[in-house]
Write a structure and sequence with these properties.
Blueprint: E1 2-11, E2 15-18, H1 19-36, H2 38-42, H3 54-61, E3 65-68, H4 71-75, H5 94-110, E4 119-123, H6 134-142, E5 147-151, H7 157-170, E6 175-182, E7 202-211, E8 216-226, E9 232-233, E10 253-254, H8 256-277, E11 285-290, H9 295-306, H10 319-322, H11 329-337, E12 346-353, E13 357-366
Helix pairs in contact: 1-3, 5-6, 8-9
């Protein structure tokens, strides 16, 4: 018997923001800020802000557009954050709502029902609240028995969640529903030229079960790694109300150049060591489903692993459409391109991000 990913699901909101729209919004804010603070800027007391362009965004990241929960508030240069209606405690939370939609699709694709699932895990970068766990809310909305919990390993949460799912099955659970709901636009600083374009909103779900009779991706090996770094950080949390600090300090921040320099060789080293341990080579891997943060990063990692002449199609890119969707990105890539892998062929699911954290999973396709 092998533990397999037998079904995946994907949900995204309908509203889309293009690079052009995002740059225009930032530039309007920058112009207003520089005008209002002209004297301080001239005196050297404040730094003049710089605008951006669609061309810069795509060149820097490979991103062309992104789905968002609410567009007008983000593009309003006097607001620069989504407009979300508050829901009562008796209503399903937005994060749970999206998770339920993705979960139903994953269950349908896996051919299972809520009665077949014992565990629900919500693994993502940001929870809508501290507690009760949103995973338990999803469990309740679907009518699943057993237990549920939230976990956060930032952009690596999907691979770390797959490890928890596999361990739960080894401990006796029949099937696990893993959900990754990333409403990233709520914690992104749209005034910041270096990161305002990075994220998009989405939800994914996966069914993990032990089977030899169903089509899916068997989990052969999992390698997890963490090493503390402040180069990617988000200070937003449930203690903020008691802290005397400005809101800027509570939003997403990263030093992109340091992250690029640190993470690319680290991920490649982990994947190469994992393949060597399994007596596989890069040529044995049909697809590398890498974290969808930056197309340039993924190209470099692929070349570190498979050689400078590697076919870039072996590492599918979906971030051009979705932007960085944090933990959900690798699952979107698998969901969209898993059919390109034939029976018996291998793939690598690798996510990486804040922590630093890296998760790498070698899988093998089985067709029933």
């Amino acid at each position: 018997m092998g533990i397999r990913i037998t079904g995946t699901g994907l949900f995204h909101p309908t509203e889309i923001i293009s690079n052009e729209e995002l740059a225009d919004s930032l530039n309007a804010y920058v112009e207003q800020y520089n005008q209002e603070n002209a004297e301080e800027i001239a005196a050297g007391e404040l730094e003049e802000l710089r605008g951006s362009s669609a061309e810069f965004i795509e060149k820097a990241s490979g991103i062309k557009r992104r789905y968002v929960v609410e567009k007008s508030g983000i593009l309003d240069p006097t607001r620069l954050r989504p407009r979300l209606s508050e829901r009562s405690n008796d209503e399903l939370s937005l994060q749970a709502e999206w998770g339920v939609i993705a979960a139903k699709q994953a269950m349908e694709n896996a051919g299972v029902t809520v009665e077949d699932i014992d565990v629900v895990i919500l693994a993502c970068s940001n929870m809508q609240r501290a507690y009760p766990a949103v995973a338990i809310e999803i469990q309740s909305a679907l009518g699943i028995q057993g237990y549920a919990y939230d976990m956060n390993v930032a952009c690596s949460a999907a691979t770390f969640g797959l490890k928890q799912a596999a361990d739960a099955i080894r401990s006796g659970a029949r099937r696990v529903l893993l959900v990754n709901v990333e409403i990233t636009s709520g914690h992104l600083d749209y005034r910041n030229r270096d990161c305002h374009f990075i994220f998009g909103d989405v939800a994914t779900a996966s069914i993990i079960e032990e089977t030899t009779t169903k089509t899916g991706f068997e989990i052969l090996d999992i390698h997890l790694f963490t090493q503390f770094s402040n180069n990617i950080r988000n200070n937003f949390g449930f203690l903020n109300r008691s802290e005397d600090a400005v809101v800027d300090d509570k939003l997403f921040r990263q030093d992109g150049r340091k992250v690029f320099k640190d993470v690319c060789p680290l991920v490649a080293k982990i994947i190469n060591a994992q393949l060597e341990k399994m007596q596989l080579t890069a040529n044995d891997i049909k697809r590398f489903w890498l974290h969808q943060a930056n197309a340039n990063m993924n190209e470099l990692i692929l070349k570190y692993v498979a050689g400078k002449d590697a076919d870039l199609s072996r590492a599918p890119i979906i971030l051009d459409e979705f932007a960085n969707t944090s933990s959900a990105g690798v699952i979107i890539a698998l969901h969209r391109t898993g059919h390109e892998v034939d029976d018996g062929e291998y793939g690598v699911i690798s996510s990486f991000g804040a922590g630093y954290s890296v998760g790498s999973i070698v899988v093998q396709k089985h067709v029933a």
